[in-house]
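User: Hi! I have a protein structure encoded as tokens and I'd like to know what sequence might fold into it. I'm fairly new to this, so please keep things simple.
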């Protein structure tokens, strides 16, 4: 067998299984309980300081709030 056939057989079987399990794992990670707060904060970044620039201490405080 040539290298192409071996790699094609591997991609059609084990790699397909691996990528499917990886996709399911990422989906479960995103939908896990407790992650909603973090995603809402990230989604609000463009609207956080519409009227004025953020102060340095405000940015640090928000970062620490999300991390805790």
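Assistant: Happy to help. Inverse folding works backwards from shape to sequence: for each of the 68 positions I chose a residue that suits the local structure. Here it is:
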């Amino acid at each position: 067998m040539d290298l192409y056939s071996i790699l094609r057989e591997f991609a059609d079987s084990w790699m397909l299984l691996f990528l499917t399990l990886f996709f399911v794992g990422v989906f479960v990670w995103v939908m896990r309980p407790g992650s909603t707060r973090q995603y809402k904060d990230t989604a609000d970044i463009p609207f956080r300081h519409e009227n004025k620039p953020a102060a340095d201490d405000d940015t640090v405080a928000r970062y620490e709030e999300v991390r805790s």
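A useful reference point when you look it over: The chain has two domains: 1-32, 33-68. Feel free to ask if any position seems puzzling.
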